[in-house]
Write a structure and sequence with these properties.
198 residues; alpha+beta; Rossmann fold; 4-stranded antiparallel beta sheet; 4 helices; 13 strands
């Protein structure tokens, strides 16, 4: 299912993709994209601009309500850092709902780890890990240039930046807390993304 949040409808249409539903306050969708959505009969859920949720949160809520088993969020790391950070927090909302989710853009995939995750077929890729919770305890990494065993990662000490995957099978384990994982894929993958086994 493809859920377009506001201006995301225009991105879909320009790519030749028909969204299944468009949601948001419609403050950034272009008039031409809106006309095309209405003409195509795509369901259109408009909210007031005076709302507490971001448009992306509204889209995520629809995905969760409709029983999504895995969610990929694209075009979510633009020029507004506050929105980009809010979208990382939305990954946590999905995690709490028991649904794996990731933010995907042309250079990297962002996902959360609160127990275990496997990354296969990405030898040579860089991975950065930062705690989303104040602390993440029992952090162990295998298949990385700089492995860890039962380590503690905490906010304010970002030593988990730019670790390199050196094995065809890399593993992340967290006993307590939540880590944000930012995976930068190597050119050798040809832009193909494996889905981490979270």
């Amino acid at each position: 299912m493809i859920i377009a949040a506001d201006r995301g409808a225009g991105y879909c249409l320009r790519a030749g993709v028909r969204p299944d539903v468009v949601v948001g306050d419609m403050d950034s969708i272009s008039p031409s994209a809106r006309r095309e959505v209405e003409r195509s009969g795509i369901p259109f859920i408009q909210h007031s601009t005076e709302k507490d949720q971001t448009d992306t949160q509204l889209a995520l809520d629809i995905a969760l309500d409709r029983g999504a088993g895995f969610i990929e969020m694209v075009a979510c790391t633009g020029d507004r850092f506050d929105h980009s950070l809010a979208n990382v927090h939305l990954l946590y909302a999905a995690l709490k709902a028991g649904v794996d989710a990731a933010i995907l853009d042309p250079s990297h995939r962002i996902f959360l780890v609160d127990s275990e995750a496997g990354i296969d077929g990405m030898k040579g890729a860089l991975l950065s890990l930062l705690p989303l919770s104040l602390e993440a305890r029992g952090v162990s990494l295998s298949g990385f240039q700089w492995p860890l065993k039962d380590a503690v990662m905490e906010v304010g000490n970002p030593y988990g930046i730019s670790n390199r995957i050196v094995s065809e099978q890399a593993r992340i384990h967290v006993r307590e807390g939540v880590l944000v994982a930012v995976l930068f894929f190597p050119e050798a993958t040809g832009g193909k993304w494996p889905v981490p086994e979270c």
